[in-house]
Amino acid sequence: MRKRATMTDVAALAGVSLKTVSRVVNGEPGVSPDLVERVRRAVEQLDYRHNLAASNLRRGVRTQTIGVLLHDLRNEYAAELLRVIDDHARPLGVAVLASSLDDHEDREQVLVHDMVTRRVDGLVLMPASPDQSYLLPEVRAGLPVVAVDRPTAGLAVDTVVVDNRDGAHRATEYLLGRGHVRVACLTDRGRLWTARERLRGYLEAITEAGLPVDERIVVKDLVTADEATAATRALLDLADPPTAVFAGRNDLSVGVVRALRERALERRVAVVGFDDFPLADLMSPAVTVVSQRVTEIGATAAQLLFARMHGEAPTPRTVVVPTRLVERESGLIPVPVTFA
Amino acid sequence: MRKRATMTDVAALAGVSLKTVSRVVNGEPGVSPDLVERVRRAVEQLDYRHNLAASNLRRGVRTQTIGVLLHDLRNEYAAELLRVIDDHARPLGVAVLASSLDDHEDREQVLVHDMVTRRVDGLVLMPASPDQSYLLPEVRAGLPVVAVDRPTAGLAVDTVVVDNRDGAHRATEYLLGRGHVRVACLTDRGRLWTARERLRGYLEAITEAGLPVDERIVVKDLVTADEATAATRALLDLADPPTAVFAGRNDLSVGVVRALRERALERRVAVVGFDDFPLADLMSPAVTVVSQRVTEIGATAAQLLFARMHGEAPTPRTVVVPTRLVERESGLIPVPVTFA
DNA sequence: CCCGGACCAGACAACGTTGTCAGGCGATGG
DNA sequence: CCATCGCCTGACAACGTTGTCTGGTCCGGG
Fold this sequence. Notes:
homodimer; 3 domains; 6-stranded parallel β-sheet
């Protein structure tokens, strides 16, 4: 396990100066063919590999690296975002440092700090904490930042989100339009912007329909699919259970379906979920969802980021990517006729 | 967009020497309290951030970064691996550079080269090309490499795989044991080791059962779920269609189920898939699979890698993580009685 | 009063690379 | 035959940091 050869080693072996090696390695013109050849051979012989860090340091150039900090890389939504961003970065010679925040406030600050320490050229962040003003010095120092999925607070940066309120509104309206009057709502932690917006969309739709809001069928702060399953069981145990459920996140939808299955009610209670998920169309009944165009979100985030990294510095922009209501079977389940 | 402050700037503002700033920043002892305070204030005022690259360069220490190159980060299996590896790396102060190879041979070499250029301290690789001997110089130069999912060829490194042959053998045997005599097999590209091994397991089981191998129901080189769907349609169109299917990868299983659904045969044809997938248990019928313990694979890979990064240099080890046959409904579907 | 030691601060070189500039050499033209 | 030019090549400094080593100050003890 020897140390890696440096340009100095190559120069010594080739019998040329350090600088000549540098020129050959960087493909600069003005080196005579036989010297090029000698250097090439020495490089080969020593297995010399260019050191990007040292090169970037001297050049005063950026690191050709961006950071991508998302909620959970194992989650389908985050994984897709990462993949798309990487696909945009690679052709530009930019590598991606990725990590998961688990919506943990401290982790956000720690990891962002680590990224800054590594002098990433840009950052894609799914904000986990309620305040990003700690980023102000970095942004002022020229760090391009793009927020995805949720906006930042306390600091304006480029942002790519969907209209969560509108999507939830439409989902709820869809169920109400099919005759349901008892529509339950399950959402994520209230400190998350997306959860709050989706809840708002639901409440607006209910209110606009002239229906009362029944707090017993509005369940908040659900983190895992299992919690959604448990919550659904409780809903079904009510004296007047809901006839339809709006699930505010893809794994919550899964949790709901699981609970309905347990009681063989999956064709008796209507479900519309927020976020599509793989195989939603293959379940029986297939699950109706409000779908986010994840690929488009990722591509947009990448474009905004690279534009800024390439020197464009407009005032922060917010892009709202439209959602689509994907009609499948679970949303079509009617209100049971066996009713008082 | 000013340039970031350096230690020199901080030193100037604090009225101390560069080295004193270095000491304070690194928490070294032996600086008088009031100087520490002055430096702290200057750091604050200038938003100074430590430059890890420069620090590492000088220290001759590694970059505190590892590379993770997998097939496709959006794939559930790869995403989970990445997540687990990151969870192991973070507490050690190590960041993860991740990218997708798409099983593209050139991309493997290009991306590995890029990682070397960035002087990663270690590499987790899902080999995409048939020969990794190009890695020899890097390994000799002390780069720890761990192969996951598939072994390397032309170069021995630490490896974490499952017994694909055995898993496929058991899956096939399971179907044969339930009376099926026409069991189809769908597999990935033959140049992939996993695909070859799984095919081998299938063929062995068929042969051991004294059955003939019918090439018409052994379909190879399937890359996408759609291709599996098309292949399944063709199988069903045969004069003597299979009564059971062994699908050699998780999205191929999905493709098979989709085709069966189209013809309302999902409860008439048995299915066992290789690799579990989310919601496999929620489909109807729930899909029986050979499951890999992905978390364990990732954790093992991380452990092997970090052991080597910390100086252990035993001869390359191969860890075979066991698979489990997860019995669900689709594997229990019996041979139709309406039979000649 | 002076010496020794403890303690603290800074000068300098070096990590591996590249930009700048000066110099050597052969060829060309007057 | 010499001045000039162009083409190569290399010496040197610098990127931002840290290890080493030197030197200064202050204190207590002899």
